[in-house]
Amino acid sequence: MTPAVIQLAAEAAERQSAEVTDWDARLAWVLGLLVFIAFVYWLMRQGWKWRGALQNDLPALPTTPSGLPAHRLALTGRYHGSTTAGQWLDRIVAHGLGVRSRVELTLTDTGLDVVRPGATDFFVPAARLRGARLDKGIAGKVLTEGGLLVVTWAHGDKLIDSGFRSDRAAEHAAWVEAITTLVNQNSSIPTEGAAR
After folding, report:
1. Dist. CA 34–CA 66, nearest whole Å
2. What DSSP state is assigned to residue 191?
3. In angstroms, what CA-CA distances link 103 with 1, 19, 63, 121?
4. Dist CA 30 CA 45 (whole Å)
5. Predicted confidence (pLDDT) at residue 156 exceeds the cutoff of 60
6. How far apart are the first and last CA of the chain?
7. Which residues are bridge partners to 29 per DSSP?
8. How far is C-alpha 113 from the geometric centre of its chain's CA atoms?
9. Could you give the CA distance from residue 25 to residue 100 in angstroms, rounded to a whole number?
10. pTM (2 decimals)?
11. Dihedral pair phi/psi, residue 152, rounded to 5°
12. CA 14 to CA 94: how far, in whole Å?
């Protein structure tokens, strides 16, 4: 070894980090940071509750009727949330619609069955479906272009967009086509008032 390398090794061995002598100041900083994080979490929770209170006019979600007909399509994946239709950041949190979860979707002639383990299940009757499209974002979740299946449906007097992502994203196009077909079939059926 050269004398320069030996000298550098000796200097490195002598260098040590200074011992912490002011434990009170460090503990105060850590405690202050933890209080700040807890305060921010509390504010976020209050905002979630406030948004839910603003949306309390939304009726209860329909439940799955018994004896569903054979399904047209089924998928498993993720539910990413619901928003006011056309406003991808206006999250709806009432009735658990803001909770992200796993999802099992089933499309039948009577509607869309949304089963969410650990969250509230709901059913969208076929007459309330308004369409489906491929998109890239909803409720603060952004994916690749076309990576999200967005289903538009009517609930009460509100149009809602609900975002889903299949475990096999290639299925999304078939879902858009099937929901569009179902919506068109239902819109071509005359109502009782129109038949007179």
Report:
1. 50
2. P
3. 65, 53, 15, 9
4. 23
5. yes
6. 103
7. none
8. 17
9. 40
10. 0.71
11. -100, 130
12. 63
Query: Would you say the C-alpha torsion 62, 115, 106, 174 has a positive or negative sign?
Result: positive
CA-nearest of 174, 152, 3, 158 to 75 is: 174
Tell me the two tokens of residue 27. Answer: 């503990």
Q: Write the DSSP assignment of 80-136 as a string of letters.
A: EEEEETT-TT-EE-GGGTT--EEEEEEEETTEEEEE-TTS--EEEEGGGEEEEEEES
Query: What rounded mean pLDDT belongs to the chain?
Result: 84
Instruction: Bin 122: left if φ > 0, else alpha if -120 < ψ < 50, else beta.
Output: beta
% of the chain with per-residue pLDDT over 70: 85
- 116 in Cβ contact with 163 (< 8 Å): no
Residue predicted with more confidence, 173 or 8:
173
53-88 in b/e form (b: 16+ CB < 10 A) is eebeebeebeebeeeeeeebeebebbbbbbbebeeb
What's the pLDDT at 157? 87
Distance from C-alpha of 157 to C-alpha of 186, rounded to nearest angstrom:
19
Beta carbons of 186 and 129 less than 8 angstroms apart: yes
* Tokens of residue 164, six digits: 């889903």
The confidence score (pLDDT) of residue 54 equals 67
How far from the centroid of its chain's Cα atoms is residue 117's Cα? 14
Tokens of residue 51, six digits: 């948004």
Question: CA 31 → CA 28, 124, 139, distances in Å?
Answer: 5, 48, 33
Round to whole Å and give the CA distance between 105 and 83: 18
Which residue in 125, 102, 123 sits closest to 114, CA to CA? 123
